[in-house]
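Deliverable D4.2, example record:
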Amino acid sequence: MELDDLKTKWNALDKRLAETEIVNMRMVKEMVSHKTKSAYDRIVGQNIYNLVVCILIICVVFPFVYMNTPIRFISFAIVEAVMVLGMIPQIWKISLLSKFNLEDKKCSELSRLVLKYKKVCHHETIWGIAGVCLAMAAFYILELGFNKEAGYVLGTRLLLPLGLTVLTFGLGFFLAKWMRRRHAQGLQEIEQGLEELKEFED
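Output generated by the structure prediction step:
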């Protein structure tokens, strides 16, 4: 009789331990999912912010500069065209991110999605730098070489726009570097989270 009681108590204890383990596993999974989702939300917010800034520059800032300075239309059109083309990878990235769903998709699918996203980011950096350099070179060649109405003369009057350009590029470079570091950190957190979540699928 004592042996039967001991077996019953042992089975009850074993059952409680199993239930506790399941609850603990569920809590760990929820914590990892929450951390991964938070990193994902930050990256989505950063991409939307970048897209909104691009739209404002294309539709408001640069047209205002064009209308209030003696910039030639062709110079304005080249820079605008490059900025519009620069929005394509931004939209592409947001489209990829919109497919990221921790509840409905497996970690292997999400990992492939992250890999595609990283490839788009890589190509965006290369083509973005090339596009900006070519656009600015064309802009200054057209403006300094062919825009007689502006009356650019090598001196203080010319140094002002050149100085402002260098300052803008400098600030943009440091801001972009800071944002890229945060972006890379967020991607690393997502990849790490997906690796941890794979263990719960097995």
